[in-house]
Amino acid sequence: MKIKKLKPLLIKIFKKHGLSNVHSTISTNALINAELVGAYGHGLSRLKMYCDRINKKVINIKPKIKVKNISRSISHIDADNSIGFVAADIGIKKAIENANKTGIGLVAIKNSGHYGLSGYYAEQAVKKKLVTMIFTNAPPAIAPHGAVKRLFGTNPICFGTPSGSKIPFILDTSISMINRGKIRVAAKYNQKIPKGVALDKFGNPTVDAKKALKGVQLPIAGFKGSGLAWMVDILSGVLTGGNHAGKVKDPFDDFSGPQNIGHLFITFKTNLFVKNFTNRIKDNIKTIKKLPKIKGIKEIMYPGQNKYIRLQMNSKKDIYISEIIKKDLKLLKS
């Protein structure tokens, strides 16, 4: 489906479910971006989930979002259980505003929901020539090291910086071996998942996506990944006033109340300590790209390059709509 046809359709669906035109547009743009960069687990496959949560009244369609300015650099946002896209859009824009005023912006958000890709918001800061770090927690998926019960989310860590070229440096990674969205997509299409990424509910390794969703996902780097997940839970949950320690509700399966996810946005200017950041980052990337390459590697890529290439390629093509997604769209627009 062509983007110019898909975008008004998604806006219409969100508006039909009660969101304002502005909030519908923000949500639509985030979903389409996920499709264009190839992050299908965060794209159209989640549309029905958002609409279901609106119907169950666990997403507030008319939130009274409050922004408390603690200082010229620091702000605390109560998202009032709005759809996560809207809360994050306000959050990153406020962090950018604060950084432009003082050199650094620190914004904490509570009472939010799933907001899609962290990298999507990081790009907004990088385009304004800012360095950014973004943290958000998620529903239980990973067991803390030494435990047998899942508690931490896949808790993505995101870092972005201007690169001195049109392609931003964006590292956006969950601390799990693969993100939960990919497993959900695999379960939806009855596909297998790779070995070594999840255990079933009995603690046995599994390649069955549905069993993995009921079991435990494995963190990157063993106890180190578990520690990073804990760090993100503290930064985006404990610190912000959001849910933490396994209390974030699963958006697909738990409609007992709002998720109350927490987000933390940090932005700062590149010239705080040196005046020649652009030359230095160019030199940094150039030096690494010149390193001897292992067999089969044509170019050493920095984080964000592949995603940028996919975005450019996919923006010129129609967005593929599977039969399952077509059924969702037909159901949601009727």
Protein model, in words:
The protein is α+β, with helices and mostly antiparallel strands and 334 residues long. It has 2 domains: 1-55 and 305-334, Malate/L-lactate/L-sulpholactate dehydrogenase, four-helix barrel (Hypothetical Oxidoreductase Yiak, Chain: A, domain 1, Orthogonal Bundle); 64-176 and 219-303, 2-Layer Sandwich (Ribosomal Protein S8, Chain: A, domain 1). The chain has helices at residues 3-16, 21-36, 47-55, 84-102, 118-127, 180-188, 209-214, 223-238, 277-289, 305-314, 323-333; strands spanning 66-69, 74-78, 104-112, 130-136, 157-161, 169-173, 198-199, 216-217, 261-269. The strands form 2 sheets. It has a 7-stranded mixed β-sheet, with helices on both faces. A hairpin with a 4-residue loop joins strand 1 (66-69) and strand 2. It is globular, with a radius of gyration of 20 Å. The mean pLDDT is 96.
Features:
alpha+beta, Hypothetical Oxidoreductase Yiak, Chain: A, domain 1, Ribosomal Protein S8, Chain: A, domain 1, 7-stranded mixed sheet, two-stranded antiparallel ribbon, 11 helices, 40% helix, globular
